[in-house]
């Protein structure tokens, strides 16, 4: 959680540092969660794929090497890399189906901000 700093020298600018370091949260409940680049506490397995475009474990930020676009979104891919159903980091411009918790408050928000959406 924080600000995107994607130009040379930005790491030396305190005004561009994240406001809330390790500020990951589950949007439906607004509860803080641990960082998602490691096995979540209490999980018996690693949800991240062990492969991807660069044939390296996820997250790998592979698209940055391709077109300088950061992979700041999570996608649950279904065997795209012969890896079963697994988490991958992807650039956020990719249109993918959305996984949405069945939460009345969240569903009302989605309906109100997306007229005509079929939920």
TrEMBL record:
Annotated stretches, region: Disordered: 44-63
InterPro entries linked to this entry: C-type_lectin-like/link_sf, C-type_lectin_CS, CTDL_fold
Gene name linked to the record: MTC6
Name the UniProt record assigns to this protein: MTC6 protein
Cited PROSITE patterns: C_TYPE_LECTIN_1
Organism field: Fopius arisanus
Gene3D superfamilies: Mannose-Binding Protein A, subunit A
């Amino acid at each position: 959680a924080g600000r995107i700093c994607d130009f040379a020298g930005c790491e030396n600018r305190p005004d561009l540092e994240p406001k809330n370091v390790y500020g990951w949260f589950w949007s439906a409940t607004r509860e803080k969660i641990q960082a998602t680049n490691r096995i979540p506490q209490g999980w018996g397995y690693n949800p991240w794929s062990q492969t991807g475009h660069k044939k390296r474990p996820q997250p790998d930020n592979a698209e940055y090497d391709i077109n300088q676009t950061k992979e700041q979104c999570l996608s649950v891919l279904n065997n795209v890399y012969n890896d079963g159903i697994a988490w991958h980091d992807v650039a956020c411009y990719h249109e993918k189906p959305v996984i949405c918790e069945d939460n009345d408050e969240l569903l009302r928000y989605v309906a109100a901000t997306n007229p005509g959406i079929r939920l």
